[in-house]
Structure formats: structure tokens, C-alpha cells
Amino acid sequence: MKIVVFNKPYDVLSQFREDSAHLTVSSFIADPELRIAGRLDLDSEGLMFLTDHGGLNQYITHPSNKKYKTYLVQVDGDITEDALEKLRKGVELADGLTLPAQATKVEEPEWLWERNPPVRFRASIPTSWVEISICEGRNRQVRRMTATVGFPTLRLIRTQIGSINLVKLGLQPGEQKEIEPLLYPDFKDVPEDKPYRSRSYVKKPGGTGGKPIHHKNKDGDKKASDKKKSGTKRIWQMDEDEKPRRKTNGTTRPNTKSRGRRAR
After folding, report:
1. 167 in a domain, yes or no?
2. Cα separations (Å) of 243 from 127, 229, 235, 236, 237?
3. DSSP letter, residue 130
4. Looking at residue 159, which CATH number applies to its domain?
5. Average pLDDT of the segment spanning 215-237
6. Which of 3, 98, 187, 240 is the most exposed, having the fewest neighbouring CB atoms within 10 Å of its CB?
7. Number of structural domains found in the chain
8. Residue 241, SS3?
């Protein structure tokens, strides 16, 4: 299992597909074996995992695994203890009540890098910093949580997933580092990586699931037992004289309705 830690800069898309308007992860990482596990929004910064392990994404985002993700959040206004307590108890969002979060007011850290463009500055309205840890992965969850308690998010940086700490690794925006999974207890219970199986194929009792497996002989051809024998023709495969005719009792009128279309 290969795991690369990446510090995603602001205004970079969490995807490998090229985009005409924004930089993407492919602008920094070119390894074709890696896939993104735990995306960040365009306007968020910080820690991301990239891996060749198919099940890692669900492992770190599913609430049942209690894999906490920690964010340094700059909010609009001087956040109150009452607002922090609401975050700790759980906030009612449009998609339901959040699980209790760990929320602590902190000072702006010394290690913090400058953002380009910078966060807007208004002398009449102060800002404050909060460290928030959650074990869920809803869309823009932290931003929605702080807005619900009255303090909209201005800047959001993910600093930690489990015990993997971006600050301790010392990565600056755009930098990456491959880590050894065996050195971290977070990855000891990661499920076995399984090959992709198509959802369009229905798993039958005794079957393999995923796409059907076709065995080939020495010449590279499918075995005769695997080849599907052609059965009844489908209607689109029939000639006009082969298509079934509608049976009537002789009283059916021909269809002359235009079905909403204007005559040409």
C-alpha cells in the first residue's frame, strides 16, 4: 500500500482531470497509480492522502471508524464559548444533526503560511481561530457548522487525519511526501484492497460478483461453455416481415393522432 501526503494549496481542485479555470492535483503529482482519498473543497487547504489502495477513502471517511480529521478554521467574528459548546454537542444541519465535535478556540499559529489571495480584512469586524475535529465527511461540513452557530468560515485548513499531522511533517503548500503505513497505527485495520467490480452486474448465489469471468483457452479464445448462444431475436434485430403484429378484433381504428406534434 502506497500513501502520499499532500498539502493542497488554496484554489486547487481535488482531482487529476485537467481543468481550464483552476490548477488540479495533477499539476503537482503525476503518479498514475495514485487516487485521492479524502478530498478537500476548492477553497480549502491542507492535508490530503493519495494512495493506490482502493478501500482507504471509505476507511478514513466513514464515521464508524472514528478517524478524526482536524481543521484550523478562521471565522468571521470573535467566537464565543456558547458557540463552541454548540459545536461540541452537535449542530442541526439541513442533512441532519452532526456528531459531537471537538472545538477549541486557539491563537493564530506561528507556522501558518500566507494565503494567496489573502482573506478579506475589515477593521470593524474581528476574526478568530478555532481548532475543530470531526469524524464525519459531509459536504462542506465544517463551514456549515460554523455558519449555523453564527460565525461563518473565512479560511479552512485541514491539519490532521488520525495521527498523520501536516504540521509535524513540515509540508508547505504544494509539497508532498510518501509515508510508510507500517509506522502508523492508523492503517493497521485498513480492509484488504479488492479489485473494482461493476455495480451493473448483479451478484448471484455462488457467483463471483462484479463482472462475469470468462476463461480463455491457450489460443486466447473464450471457452465454448462461456460463449453465449444466441436465443430469441430482439425486436430491433428483426426484419420488418418478422416483427409481431398487433392482434385486433377488426374494430380498431388506425392511429391518426399527431401526439402533440404539429403537422408539417
Report:
1. yes
2. 74, 21, 6, 9, 9
3. E
4. 3.30.70.1560
5. 57
6. 240
7. 1
8. helix
